[in-house]
Design a protein that fits this description.
alpha+beta; CBS-domain; 4 domains; 4-stranded mixed β-sheet; 4-stranded antiparallel β-sheet; 16 helices; HlyC/CorC family transporter; transmembrane helix
């Protein structure tokens, strides 16, 4: 120690602490790194991101290098501090204890906690910076790491511990949690779309269809004048066409194609309209929404008739209905159709809703928790709860929401008043 000046010894101790901090910050950054983000950078041509992925594919060797380097340097720092204390203060046990405590405190503060906090805060930036150095160290320390890992593997097998997790795939719930906790990194609109996509897994076409009572359809058995009047005032470009009653769907009519028939208005018969029909596309009511989206694409269809197990028409679903479930409503509502647009509680905690409104729309727009595993509409829920066609002014409580029937017409509930309950 005589030949080494004091400043050099202190500088050596500082350098050892810095090296220990390097290994600590590298370990935390590499382990806290989002592999999905790094893969995105690598796919964009970032060479350092590609190198980081290669290092992470050798996690065993990477951790071996980091931990070996960190422990060797910490041991060297402790030995240097002990040698320094013995040289300057003799064999005093108090001097050794103070020196050991001081260097341990310095290691914890400057080489462990602080670097690891920084590494956890900026994992991507630091990992890309230290990757080339770690790659060189993995080559230089390969023999020592190989021996160490060999011993570790033997101990793992002895303890019957698997070397790698059997399943690293993320579940849908985990992905949903990532989206919810993304904060400002994902715009609110994009976050809403992603959450809607996850929710589609639990939906069938029955949940998103236009109910049978709200379908705008054409009865081809009507007189031609009535058919023309309906075509002139219809809201949609495609109409399901039935004969006599709605369960006898014979095709889909493109309203624009009927314009050419107006020149021969006096000679028109129902057969002229039949020749314009395209075959109807039927969908079982329990078909999943994701599955149906794929079927629409494969069959080049945009509209389907939803039927139950007996072949009776239950509703109608379009490609736009499914898209709206993902990105929100973007089309104009059909006049008279029950939609959730404009739903809001008033100052008294009340809201008027049409009975044909779906329970999912009510829950979504009013923050309620009405049960959706049975009937799909508010009218259906009330009929199930009451077991009878109710009279007006009847009230009941469902899922902490008071529901007051305002109007009943044609054996169905037309208008309902929702009143916030204590927990709503």
């Amino acid at each position: 120690m005589d030949a080494v000046p004091l400043w050099a010894q202190i500088l050596g101790l500082v350098l050892l602490l810095l090296l220990s901090g390097f290994f600590s910050i590298s370990e935390t950054a590499m382990m806290a790194l989002s592999r999905y983000r790094v893969r995105h950078l690598a796919s964009g041509g970032n060479r350092r991101a590609t190198l980081v992925l290669k290092l992470l594919d050798q996690t065993e060797r990477l951790l071996g290098v980091i931990l070996l380097g960190n422990n060797l340097i910490n041991s060297a720092a402790s030995a240097l501090a002990a040698s320094f204390a013995i040289y300057y203060f003799g064999q005093s046990k108090y001097a050794l204890a103070i020196a050991s405590a001081a260097v341990s405190f310095a290691i914890i503060i400057f080489a462990e906690i602080t670097p690891k906090v920084i590494g956890a805060t900026y994992p991507e930036r630091i990992a890309l910076l230290v990757a080339p150095i770690l790659r060189v160290l993995m080559v230089v320390m390969n023999p020592l790491v190989w021996i160490t890992n060999l011993i570790v593997k033997f101990l793992l097998r002895l303890l019957r511990v698997p070397e790698k997790p059997s399943d690293m795939a993320m579940s849908t719930d985990e992905l949903r949690s990532i989206v919810l906790e993304s904060g400002h990194f994902i715009p609110q609109k994009h976050k809403s779309i992603l959450l809607n996509l996850f929710a589609l897994e639990d939906l069938s076409v029955e949940d998103v269809m236009t109910p049978r009572a709200q379908i705008e359809a054409l009865n081809i058995a009507m007189p031609v004048e009535e058919i023309l009047h309906q075509l002139a005032t219809c809201y949609h470009n495609k109409l399901p066409v039935y004969e006599g009653e709605i369960n006898r769907v014979v095709g889909i009519l493109h309203v624009r194609k009927t314009i050419a028939l107006l020149d021969q208005r006096d000679e028109l018969t129902s057969e002229h309209f039949r020749h314009l029909l395209t075959p109807p596309y039927f969908i079982p009511e329990d078909t999943g929404v994701f599955t149906q989206l794929q079927y629409f694409q494969e069959n080049h269809e945009r509209l389907g008739i939803v039927v139950d197990e007996y072949g009776e028409v239950q509703g109608l679903v379009t490609l736009e209905d499914i898209i709206e479930e993902m990105i929100g409503e973007f089309t104009t509502s059909m006049p008279g159709a029950a939609r959730a647009e404009g739903f809001a509680w008033d100052d008294n905690g009340e809201c008027l809703v049409e009975g044909a409104t779906t329970l999912r729309d009510i829950n979504k727009h009013l923050g309620l928790a009405l049960p959706v595993d049975g009937p799909k509409t508010l009218n259906g829920l009330l009929l199930e709860e009451l077991r009878d066609i109710p009279e007006a002014a009847i009230s009941l409580k469902v899922a902490d929401c008071i529901i007051e029937i305002v109007q009943v017409q044609n054996q169905s509930i037309k208008v309902v008043k929702l009143i916030k309950g204590i927990s709503a």
